[in-house]
Amino acid sequence: MRRRRKCRLWWPSDLTSQTPSKSTFLFGWFIFSSEDSLDIIVAFAFDDSKLSFTISHNSDLQEILQRTNKNMPALLQDKCKFSLLGYYEADFSGNSQLVRSRNDKNKHCNLTSNRRHLNKCTSNHGSPSCGCPKLDGLSEQFRLDALENMWIKLVYDLSETIDGQVDVFPKLDHIHWTGETMFHLDLHVIVYDTPSFGGHHYSLGIHDSSNLGTSCKTPKWFDDLHQTDPHLELETVICAINSANAAQMLFSGHAESGFQFHIVCMHRSCVEFAEKAAFHKHSMWSNVVVDVLLGSLIGIALWFMAEPACLWISGFAHDITNYWLRNGCVWLIGNPAGFKVNTELAGVLGMISLTAIQIWSALWGLMGSFFLYFTKGLALCGILFGLTAAAALVIDIISVVTMHVLTLHLFLSLLYSTQIQTVAALWRIFRGRKWNPLRHRLDSYDYTVEQHVVASLLFTPISLLLPTTSAFYIFFTILHTAVCFICIVVGFVISFVHATPYAKIFLWLKRKERFPSGIWFEVISCQNSETGAVSGSDSSPGTSSSNSTVLVSFLHSNYLKLGEVVWPHYRYIFSGFSRSSISSSAYGLLTGTSVSSALRTGLPPELPWIAIPWKEYWRLCHNAVYACRPDPYSH
Question: Which Pfam families does this entry report, sorted A to Z (predicted)?
Fold first, then answer.
């Protein structure tokens, strides 16, 4: 036995808060979720007389619908088509339940005359057998054109709500579906507030489960849940609801202005897409404003405190040079922490380090007289170009000031890594192994006695000199890592300022409705209504009435919290701190092949016009501007 078909009617709330005219046409989308499930999204309603007058003086209805559909999002164009849904009129039966009058043969069907004939829609849709009223003029032509695909007839009556307000809720009279006229459907009326740009919209808020970072394996039954076929095209439905307002504006513009209509960009036809584009646009100027604001505050303070800042920095640099570098090198020349080192090699490395430090101290003394101007220039840079420009300049200044530490660290890293590689190569000779650079593996190899003797003679002194080199390498690696850590902290500040969505924070504080995350339904009423009226004594057992479930609910949204709005933008800051990067940096420090600056903070993704060549960017801008101009040959 075939299951009863289900119909979900998504109804705009503005049509419930006002009494419609005597007869109205409905426009929107039919979305087929399955063979027995249908979603009807009503975007707006158009008065019968007004629609007939407008279309007769301007364009053909099908042409207007096609042009409106072309401006809809790609998701709607692939899954459904914007069309004329059906007819909406008043129910004059005076009963809150849906009752079809037996006397009005032009309005309703005679259920007992020919039940079998009711289930099939004849070619003459204007006949009384299908239950559709025959209209006048162009309205009848609109109805006949829509009947070739699908057609619904809705009626309404006035009912008291819980709050005492009079609302108008639609009731399904019948529907023409796949060549059949159906009366017995389980109807779910979902009332929604029409989304508008800058007001609110709906979003499913589905998070990607792959980003959860769980290491445990999900059970099979959990994976099977995501493989089941959904019976509701909820993503398409939400996209259609978000495009309802734009569809009404486009249709009205087409109908009132003919082919010279107002062109709306494709991403503007869906409120959700428009909001995302607006957030992306506002994030640029808001970041610039906050950056300049913070830079001005810190720059003005640094400008007036330039001399005390110069004295403090000069004293700090002098203390580091004397008490850390010089004393550290002298300490390494002796027996550091009771660690036995080679006296001759330690003396050579110590003298090289002290000479480099002395040369740099002399240069720093010459640059000290100009350091006040550098400080004021840094303050002026923050005032004019913002905090991040000044912070980037600070990183460059730190790199220049600590150039002697970097130079000594690179020299000792080269010496240390060379000794490590030499010891490893000699150890492979003792094991009878050889590194194959083509296949990146160790192969067996027969070495001669002379080669073993030479390897033994080289292995002993290099192994004995390695602790001395390691002591100097560890000392300067610690200093260089501290300098890199300071640069990382400053880079983290730059990334934090760039990544913070100031526009979203301000908009969230003002209107949370612009940040939906998930939907929920508020059930108003649920009842079994008698959809088939029995015609007194003429009824038979085979034509008994059938009960259909009628459910009325309101569509609501959940909203993101402030942390949920901000946190996705900060995940790029920590992109450099992954397990693989930390392990590779640690391996590089132990072998002397890399420095700790590999640990870096990540910046937000590049803007679209930065990722493409400038010629291509201006060509796209030119095409976008001229695409929004009316076509002079569209008449």
Answer: Gpi1
